[in-house]
Amino acid sequence: MNVKEFYLWLVRCVSMLWCHRRRDAVVYLLSFNDNLPFILAVKAALPADQPLIVFYRPQQATSAQYLAQQGVRTILFRDGLRFALTGIPRVMRARVLYCDNYYAFLGGLAHPRNMRIVQLWHAVGAIKKFGWEDPTTPLRSASDQRRFQAVYDHFDEYVVASPAMGQVFTRSYRVPAHRMQVLGYPRSDRLLSPQWVAQARAKVARVAPELMGSRIILYAPTYRPGVTFTPPQDLAQALTADPQAKVVVKLHPALAQTATTLQAQLGTQVVVADQLSTSELLTVTETLVTDYSSVAFDYSLLANAHSLLFYLFDLSAYQREPGIQADFLSWLPGRALRNSQELAAAIIADQTTDLRHFNQQWNTANDGQATARVVARYHGSATRGND
Question: Where found in the cell (predicted)?
C-alpha cells in the first residue's frame, strides 16, 4: 500500500465512522475564487439552523477572508492526516457537497445515499482534454486509474452550461449522461449583469485609467502546468500591430518572469494591470487573444465582445500533450492563427467575430439566471428535515 492508497483508506475509515450521523450542513470545496456570489446565494437560501461550511485551498485565503466577513464558516483545507481526522467528520455532515474541481480524497469517501455530491467545475466549456481523454491517463498505473474513476463516480450530478459540455464530461469521466444537469454555470451570471459589468469597468478606470478610451487588446493564454512557456519572439510585434491600441498581458502567476519579459518587449503600448483580474479586464477588452483557455467562453458572453482571436502557434505539440478536443477546430469561431504574421493581420483587420454559434453550443443555459436555478434545485427544500 503506497502513501496515496493509505490516505484514501484512512479517509474511508473515518468517513465510515461518521456515515450515519445527521446530515444538516452544506459543504463547499473551494479552489477557485470566481464563484463567491453563488456561495453567498446558497447561504441566503439556507435556514438559520443549517450551516454552510467552506473548505478552502491555501491559495484562496483572500476569498475565504471575504466569505468569513459575510458570516460563512471557512476552514483551511490541505490533504493530510489532520484533514482526514478533523475535516472528514465535518464533510460527512453535508446534505449537499459542492466541488469546484477534482478532489482526490473523494475516491475514499463513504457516500451515504442522503448526501448529494455536486460537481460545479470551474470552466464553462472545454478545449483541453482531461480525464480518460487526457493522453497521459492510459499510461498511468492500474491503481491510479482506479483512483481517478472512483472520484469521477462519486459525483451524483454535474452542473453544466450546455449539452455539449455534458457530453465532454460523459466521455472524459466515463459517467452516465443522466448525471448532467444543464442549469448554467453560476459564475457566468455576473458577465450578464449590467451592475457587475459597470462596477468592473469603474475599477478598471480607477486602477488603470490609461486604458480608457483606447482599443484594448488582452493577451490571456492558458496555463501550461510543468511547461516553460516561451512565446515566439515576434509575438510582441504582432500584439502591437495596431499602433493606437493598448495591450495588456495576463499570464498565470507562475509565469511572472515571462510576463515581465513580454511586457518589456511591448514598449509604450503595454499597460501593466496586475491589480485587475482577468474577468475585470474582459469587460473593457475589444480584442481577446487566447489559445486553449476557457477565458474564451467567458468573453463571448459580454456585450463588449468584439473580436476573439485564437493564436495557436504550438497547436501540433499541444494536440499531442495534453491534447485538445477532437472537434475543436470545427467549432472555433474564426480560423486558427498559426503564427505571429497571421495574428498581426487579424489585429489590423479588426473584424467582428461572429460568436452566435459558439454561444449556442457552449453557453446554452448561461442566461444570467444560473445561480437561481442551481439554488432552486439543491436548496428549494432546504427547510425540510433530514432525509
Answer: Cell membrane
Q: Which domain, by its residues, includes 176?
A: 3-189+368-379
Please spell the DSSP secondary structure of 325-357, one letter per residue: -TTHHHH-SS--B-SHHHHHHHHHH-PPP--HH
User: What digits encode the pLDDT tens for the residues 245-290?
Assistant: 999 999 877 777 888 888 898 999 999 898 999 999 999 999 999 9
Q: Are residues 205 and 352 in the same domain?
A: yes
In a domain? residue 77: yes
Distance of alpha carbon 348 from alpha carbon 82, whole angstroms: 56
The pTM score is 0.92
Clarify whether residues 49 and 179 are in a common domain. yes
Question: Nearest-CA neighbor of 252 among 295, 222, 285?
Answer: 222
115 is a domain residue: yes
Same domain, residue pair 237 and 326: yes
Residue 211, CB-side half-sphere exposure with 13 Å CA sphere: 26
Alpha carbon 12 to its chain's center: 28
Candidates 55, 66, 5, 65; CA nearest to 31 is 55
Per-residue pLDDT reduced to its tens digit, 7-23? 999 999 999 999 988 88
Tens digits of residue pLDDT in 68-105 = 999 999 999 999 999 999 999 999 999 999 999 999 99
Whether residues 80 and 121 fall in one domain? yes
Which residues 6+ apart lie within 8 Å of 114 measured at CB?
23, 95, 386, 387
CB 164 within 8 Å of CB 177: no
Number of domains the chain is built from: 2
Q: How many CA atoms lie within 13 A of 328 on its CB side?
A: 21
pLDDT digits 0-9 by tens, 204-222? 999 999 999 999 999 999 8
- Domain co-membership, 203 together with 330: yes
C-beta of residue 191 within 8 angstroms of C-beta of residue 197: yes
Task: Take residue 235 and report the three cell numbers written for it.
Answer: 509575438
- CATH value at residue 102: 3.40.50.11820
Q: Average of pLDDT values for 174-185? A: 98
**Same domain? 126 vs 244:** no
CA distance 344 to 336: 13
Q: Is residue 171 domain-shared with residue 243, that is, in the same domain? A: no
